[in-house]
């Protein structure tokens, strides 16, 4: 499950996280590299050719998604060439990043700044904090009074991958999801009610699982599915019209592809006779689920919505 989540996160941020088109990312390797823009010496600068449009750092992505820079951290900045000083500055940057995200509503109590460092910088951090290496004067040999987790290389890589994945998920939660409002779905405010299924409340405190933005998406899914299921599959020869369902999650209720097909059909009805009518409306085997998924992906390709969805 975690690997599938990681791949989905990588795909979304690769496609939509940047201001100047796609930029492939790899969690955590490219993210750790992107924040380590080390200041070059004069001799190095002479042999360094900047690839315009390709040097996209993590904080540039954050600036694009948030619209404003993180207080105190520029989208592109240099770091000290000294390894220990660089580690101190990166640790401070990550601390500021986590504090800022938490102030915006992110939930990251389990992510420590050191988990976002590169393996080499993490090793320096543990050496300084355990007294094996003398740090800078301003740190007094210690970065903080919090408990120190000394992890082996393999364990650290696993922790770092999880930490960066959670950071990106929370960035999506606090900077992207809030763009979802009832105003961008005018059909949600119509007087038409769904008598056959329970409603989903929009009050901020009515759920400890989903935010109000996620509940807006659930309402949108329910409305379109209930309205379009009888239109899309009225002539279905592979199960007839599918039954009413109450969509309350983003995994199990979407597995058979019918809910997503109903959403696409609401905006692209011409795909009904060419694609969606061929779907199984009551799939019961793995082959039928796969069949529906393939049709859904082909429909996305037909409207040039190629978002690298894997079946």
Q: What is the quaternary state of this protein? A: single chain
Classify the beta-strand content into a percent band: under 5%
H-E string: HHHHHHHHHHH
- The radius of gyration computed from the alpha-carbon positions, rounded to a whole number of angstroms, is 24 Å
Mean of the pLDDT scores?
Answer: 82
Number of helices: 11
Helix content: 40-55%
| Sheet of most strands | none
Shape: elongated
Pfam families: CFAP47
InterPro entries: CFAP47_dom (IPR056343), CH_dom (IPR001715), CH_dom_sf (IPR036872)
GO cellular component, one term: cilium
Organism: Sylvietta virens (Green crombec)
Give an overview in words.
This is CFA47 protein. Residues 211-311 form the Calponin-homology (CH) domain. One of its GO terms (biological process) is sperm axoneme assembly. 46% of the residues lie in helices and 0% in strands. It has helices at residues 2-16, 29-34, 42-46, 58-66, 83-103, 119-129, 153-176, 212-232, 258-267, 271-274, 286-302. It is elongated, with a radius of gyration of 24 Å. α5 packs across α6 (119-129) and α8 packs across α9 (258-267). The chain folds into two domains: 2-179, no CATH class; 182-302, no CATH class. The chain is mainly alpha-helical and 311 residues long. The chain starts with a helix and ends in a 9-residue tail after the last helix. Mean pLDDT is 82; it is low at 37-55 and 135-142. The chain contains eleven helices and no strands.
